[in-house]
């Protein structure tokens, strides 16, 4: 089920869904009789069987999807499949059929272009999509700006360290020059004093 036939979730979003149902007739006499009565000649064609049970399968999918948000369906596919299987158990049993398993093959939000703004479910869904995407864009922008500020802070810190190191280097060079000049002056004074004494 997709596009206009997509499932509507509890948060009024449309979800494209592909599910596989594994159905069989139990090898018990009363189940075989039930299946034979409900299917009759339809059991000769897979399409006829599909036509007979499809409405029940789709109804169960829709019922369960309507109780969950899109995120819940995505994050808990197994629980979704189990809930669908439980919802179908009695309905299919009336036809002599047993649902062995439900497999959720594909599950994704329906493209926004399919939503009809004149449909109340779609209108609420579109509002929700807009709210969520705008909030996410704002959060992303905030994170990007924060990262930018952090990078600039790091650049400023690095420049300060570089300037401090340059300053320390200049101070060390000046101190060394001063010590050398003091030493020279002392040596010259000593030499001068020696000459005078001589």
What is the topology?
Blueprint: E1 7-8, E2 14-25, H1 29-39, H2 46-65, H3 70-75, H4 77-93, E3 97-109, H5 120-197
Antiparallel strand pairs: 1-2, 2-3
Helix pairs in contact: 2-4
What would you say this structure looks like, in words?
The model has no long low-confidence stretch (mean pLDDT 86). The longest helix has 78 residues, at 120-197. The relative contact order is 0.12. Helices cover 67% and strands 14% of the residues. The protein has 198 residues and is an alpha+beta fold.
Low-confidence stretches: none
Overall, the morphology is rod-shaped
Q: Which class do the helix and strand fractions yield?
A: alpha+beta
How is the biggest beta sheet arranged?
A: 3 strands, antiparallel
Give the strand content. Answer: 5-15%
For the secondary structure, the number of strands is 3
How far the N terminus sits from the C terminus, by CA atoms, comes to 116 Å
List the total number of helices.
5
Q: How large, in whole angstroms, is the Cα Rg? A: 40 Å
Strand order of the largest sheet: 1-2-3
Helix share bin? 55-70%
Order of helices and strands: EEHHHHEH
Mean pLDDT: 86
Put the structure in a nutshell.
The protein is of the alpha+beta class.
What are the salient characteristics of this protein?
single chain; about 200 residues; alpha+beta; 3-stranded antiparallel beta sheet; 5 helices; 3 strands; about 65% helix
